[in-house]
Specification:
By secondary structure, this protein is of the alpha+beta class. It has four helices and nine strands. Helices cover 17% and strands 35% of the residues.
């Protein structure tokens, strides 16, 4: 299971990369492996505002559907439209080309409430 050290993590298995006040958000390698082969992704609309913990997106697989939560508050400034035709990008590259959406953060200090990689790894059961 990959858990990049330079990201922040939510208990609900989202990851956050922060750069210049923009949070890129996706689901973790652990989450995509639990869901198995992803078949559909419902992304938020650009301009939508979320509070931390709000349902922001949905990912569906052959096994189940799962809500994706906004791990931080902010306004959606971009979505990964490549996922509409290729949701399997999340399975192939959860921390890269499989990102879901980007938020302009309302308060960058919110990442302090998220976990670091080591703490997140402890949360996940061993494969």
């Amino acid at each position: 299971m990959a858990v990049p050290q330079d990201l922040f993590y939510a208990k609900t298995h989202e990851w956050v990369s922060l750069e210049d006040g923009i949070a890129t958000i996706g689901i973790t390698d652990f989450a995509q492996s639990q869901l198995s082969d992803l078949t559909f992704v419902e992304l938020p609309e650009v301009g939508t505002e979320f509070e931390s913990g709000d349902e922001a997106a949905v990912v569906e697989s052959v096994k189940a559907a799962a809500d994706v939560y906004a791990p931080v508050a902010g306004e959606v400034v971009a979505v990964n439209s490549n996922l509409e035709d290729a949701p399997e990008l999340i399975n192939k590259d959860a921390f890269g080309s499989g990102w879901l959406f980007k938020l302009r953060m309302a308060d960058e200090s919110e990442v302090d409430d998220l976990m670091d990689a080591d703490t997140y790894e402890e949360l996940c059961p061993s494969a």
